[in-house]
Amino acid sequence: MIINSEKLKNVSQKILTAVDSNELSVLTETLELKTVDNILYMNVTNKEYYARIQLELNSVESFHATVNANLFLKLVAQITTSDIELSVTDSYLMVKGNGTYKLPLIFDSDRLLEL
User: Fold this and answer.
1) 109: region left, alpha or beta (phi > 0 left; psi from -120 to 50 alpha)
2) Integer Cα distance of 64 and 87 in angstroms
3) With bands split at pLDDT 50, 70 and 90, how would you rate the model's confidence at 20?
4) Three-state SS at 77
5) What's the rounded Cα separation, in Å, for the pair 23 and 34?
6) Which residues 6+ apart lie within 8 Å of 16 measured at CB?
7) How far apart are CA 18 and CA 108, in angstroms?
8) What is the pLDDT of residues 65-87, one digit of tens each?
9) What angle separates helix 5-16 from helix 69-78, to the nearest 10 degrees?
10) How far apart are CA 109 and CA 74, in angstroms?
11) pTM for the full model?
């Protein structure tokens, strides 16, 4: 999936404010990226709230990844290319822009964690 970096940075900045990094918990530091038709949903939660932000894509995509929220969001903020490519390979989210980065996916037992 290829996304305009400015659009992704904009929604990433908004969802970053909802990430609770005060508590040491896998759940509170987790970001779920999931598409439904041509909408990319970015979800975070802690034990008190659930936050979701959406980004309209240019085409219908099938995509699902759950990663460390701060790692992904801060990486996106540093990318200076015009587009960012996201893909899932094995147990990693691949982020391409200014280089290629592998972020480990977060699993619950043998399934990808869903928020």
Assistant:
1) left
2) 9
3) low
4) helix
5) 24
6) 69, 70, 73, 74
7) 22
8) 999 998 999 999 999 999 999 99
9) 140
10) 27
11) 0.87
